[in-house]
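User: Hi! Is it possible to get a structure for several chains at once, not just one? Here's what I have:
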Amino acid sequence: NFAERSEEQVSGAKVIAQALKTQDVEYIFGIVGIPVTEIAIAAQQLGIKYIGMRNEQAACYAASAIGYLTSRPGVCLVVSGPGLIHALGGMANANMNCWPLLVIGGSSERNQETMGAFQEFPQVEACRLYTKFSARPSSIEAIPFVIEKAVRSSIYGRPGACYVDIPADFVNLQVNVNSIKYMERCMSPPISMAETSAVCTAASVIRNAKQPLLIIGKGAAYAHAEESIKKLVEQYKLPFLPTPMGKGVVPDNHPYCVGAARSRALQFADVIVLFGARLNWILHFGLPPRYQPDVKFIQKPSFVHGHPDMELLSKWRSNRAMFLELFSKCGSLGQAHQHHLRNLLEMHISGPYARPIKIKNSEVDICAEELGNNVKPAVTLLGNIHAVTKQLLEELDKTPWQYPPESKWWKTLREKMKSNEAASKELASKKSLPMNYYTVFYHVQEQLPRDCFVVSEGANTMDIGRTVLQNYLPRHRLDAGTFGTMGVGLGFAIAAAVVAKDRSPGQWIICVEGDSAFGFSGMEVETICRYNLPIILLVVNNNGIYQGFDTDTWKEMLKFQDATAVVPPMCLLPNSHYEQVMTAFGGKGYFVQTPEELQKSLRQSLADTTKPSLINIMIEPQATRKAQDFHWLTRSNM
Ligand code: ADP
Ligand code: MG
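Assistant: Yes, the chains can be modeled jointly so their relative placement is included. Here is the combined structure:
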């Protein structure tokens, strides 16, 4: 047999690279070192793009965004021990977001295991908690098999992170080429559809809704369901609410988008259809008081356990006069109780919607275990969102129907949107300096290219920014996500930039960062400049985490004492010139304090396609959100 007698040898590194290439891996993010450098070089030789980052955490965030944007996993390549441990943050984040990701970690040599080898660590075990699949191939011959399985596991079912461990001695080991069999490229996930009877029930629940609401999550974006969902919205004139990364599946400026009346829509909807969004903290668990309470809730309000006034409240809840009297007593209660009581009271005396209605949820998801979490749904549709939405459309099409555009529900929503938008606009028009968040975001929105990616993180920066900055395209918003992770922004922006360069050249990535959020991965600015990526970083700088101090207060504070004794934990150095991080590497930096400077620097940044920029925008250190209907909105991600 001629083939078996062939002398040609191949290294473990090359086998890994070829296995990745065969599985259509396009991008690797990582930091090289012992023992993975050869893998990166071999991958590049096969035409896989390699982006060297400055911290494994950011590399892993970047690789995970590739999975969300392209439906095939990006790879994060890291060294053993600490390298892998730094990547755990990115794996956890990907898994929480249900995004595909493949992490490849070098590990210590097999014959030194348990001896205290260089960077020895139980990596496969460590990754199990953060992944769907975590394994080490038993031999070089097994590498293509394990890599195919990892890629497949990352995209089939509910997407998530996978880990493949490569012992150092595999990398340079030479084996006979003919001993290696590469697995075929694994196919895209099979499309599953919902049961016909469930589709019929869902259609009838929707038809009978008095106050319907569609919630569009990032699962719908990942499923590429934009065409079918837009049709559902438009054909039946249904109000929809995108979650943060569900923004853009149907454009934010669509007349049926009720994002600007979010609280109102959630609070009074009687039928909610969830498309790829979990009823977790982002959607307030689907529970009262953010949603219609069912009667039981009023009888057993756990959060007011043992509070005497609440007993009174439930006893007398139909009595308006009693409510008003209780209202006047609010002042003497503790702050948290006061707010809960007020909200409850307001809900019950707020006119036509005062009757408790049991809401009917319909959930569409690919993950069966997700269905029914926190709230018992009226109907569950298990399957691929795009396919299931098409099933729903077919069913609804059978009988002519549309939700009446002149309904009271639409009127309520429109009025609320109008007043909320007016309140933000008023704040935005304030001329006082330093600027507030709204002024900054209105000016940014004015110049935002329609097809840009918006990446955003930070507490107030992300929360307020989301309400003003519009998305017109699906999968064009990346933010702190399900895990509420700070530090993702620069990695996500880098991933979006490399994808945009390959697939839609000319698109900008606008990365809107709080000053604190920027700090987590700030050195990735060097990565951005090294690859000259089309990224504009906006650092919305309030000198701190949530809030900071102005320079004068800062100086006063430090006059007599050691900083560690007096500086509040949320403070960062006032007036920091973050733009110099960008100029240090040859990009453009701007320090802006007025709306005019902001407008000008943005115009210049967008006009210059040859360089990335960073605009450091000084805002009022004590600036906050506009007054909220619910006090817990002031610190939630929503
Ligand atoms: P959001 O943060 O926007 O609310 P989540 O991450 O909570 O979104 O929810 C996304 C949901 O979408 C997950 O439950 C996931 O299982 C589901 N999902 C992901 N891809 C698909 C798909 N192709 N078809 C159906 N459901 C999907
Ligand atoms: Mg800040």
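Confidence is low (pLDDT under 50) at residues 295-309, 348-356, 631-638. The two ends are 66 Å apart (CA to CA).

User: Great, thank you!
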